[in-house]
Batch of 4 targets.
Target 1
Amino acid sequence: MRKPFSFFPLILALPLAACFDVELSLDFPGEDRAEATMIMVATPDFYAMTTSTGEDFCEGEESMRENGDHVCTETKSGTVDEIMSDPDFGDGMIIERRDGGLIYVAFDLGDISDDIAPPEEEGGDEMIAMMREAFEGHAITLRVSGDEIVETNGTISEDGTTAVYEIPLSLALDGGASLPETFNVLLNPGR
């Protein structure tokens, strides 16, 4: 099974199989501290698919909702250097220190269109119609927070402390063409 936070490439390759939601939150509560939380909510079908090989669904805290959805929560915290040097943290993300005590975070979204594009095959239109209905309302949400968001290509919260980028799973059906190369955030960490 994947190690904590190495899920990012996995979630980009799985949307065609079943429905789920993922939220990755990366918080910088201090100049040299980072806290990451990944919450994955899997429908019963997705849960059954991921556990059919006998592997665990979750390496963190697992719970089940009344509707049968399975929730996996994984957390990691440490210094910025510890987070970035940990091979389990995952591919597709950069954290850099910038002048003035700022921190730059970038999630690579460039390969998503290749990873999540639906297969081209006979009967594909019917499959895409079914998938569009199943994907409706499901997303991958990336959140980065600190004391102040200086710049981002995402959406800034009203209090100016969090940048959010939501990737609807329905983008898989459109080849992900509307995504930027990266979701990036320049921020002042907490003090």
Note: Residues 1-17 have pLDDT under 50 and may be disordered.
Target 2
Amino acid sequence: MQQTRVVDDNGFNPMWEETLVFDIQMPQLALVRFQVWDHDPIGRDFIGQRTVAFTSMLPGFRHVYLEGMAESSIFVHVAINDNSGKVSVKE
């Protein structure tokens, strides 16, 4: 489980520009879950989430459509290194 930093003052088009790397031991059973939260001085509000089977993720740039808020998505770049089982997800 990893978390990106909070993007302040950009609720409509946040850009994280971070790379998250995961070591996957059993890709046939692995799930990747994306969660998006709004963070402001009042508190945290849930925006949406999507859980995807690792074996369904294809390399390249992808829109991940979130469940929870109509017409919301995040744009990610997925890179898969088959030799070591590492996955890199850049948001």
Note: Residues 19-90 form a domain with the Immunoglobulin-like fold (CATH 2.60.40.150).
Target 3
Amino acid sequence: MSSPCFGSAENIVLIFSEHHNWLQKILRRRLGNASDAADLAQDVFLRLLLKPRNFDSLAGARAYLGAMAQGMCIDLWRRKEIERLWLETLNAQPKPVAVSAEHCAVVLETLFQVDTMLRALPVKVRTAFVMSQIRGLTYPEIAVELCVSVRMVKKYMAQAMLHCLVLEVEHFGAI
């Protein structure tokens, strides 16, 4: 007799009914917030519906759901930290800056995308890119800070720029 498959839409309903309350309780404890916990639990099951997975048991499904929820918690915390820092930056401006909710949403979404792009780069490549593009350091200055050659900084920057170009092609199509 073959083991059950828990990846079909019908079985996702079973997984939901078996694990939704457990997952929401775990998330509520991690996040300290019932509203965020409910949203993330819903997102976990939505992702599972959009990209079904096969599980050999309900315990395997629970382990997967827990791991997915943990990753989503980390993403939520990262997004909240980016939002907090951006709002602090706005508040630190010498003149009060009035930003519409729509503009705020666009800026935050852009910041989240940049964060995702930067996290996909190796640490030294990311660091060199930020030093160059955000801090305005020259390649020789970056080389000194990273304890590498200027040639290596050029390689890091080429790798970062290639990554940006690939993302642009993926997002906007052929250039």
Note: The two ends are 53 Å apart (CA to CA).
Target 4
Amino acid sequence: MSGLGYEQMVKLVKDNNRSKIFSDEFVICLMWKETNFEPGIANGRSTATGLMQLTKGAVDLVNKNSPAGIHFSHNEMTDAAKNIQCGTYYLDICKTKLAGVDKSFGTGAGYSKSICACETALKNDGTHPMVALQMIHR
């Protein structure tokens, strides 16, 4: 499956970001870091799936900690909108109840540093978003 374009991602995130903490730009940068905007991607070494690479455990954690009436299934995580909704709930849970984004995504200290730099660049220069996104992969 080919990746989605930047403008498509902006609209998807704007419509589906459920985070009370993380900006749309942060979410966009995280998805670029994880998948280069490929919604159907799955990690062959884990259960990580979709734009935000959510594992079965992450989806279960969201279901246990999200508002009443909110429920996700791991097999829905290739649906871009549901992945963003679930993933942004997960980001808030990581920030408020767990060890933070760096440890919760299993990549260790500094994981969010390049995402935060990308977020700042996107906010400051919306005319060249791919330049900001490419910062992630340096």
Note: Residues 9 and 28 are 7 Å apart (CA to CA).
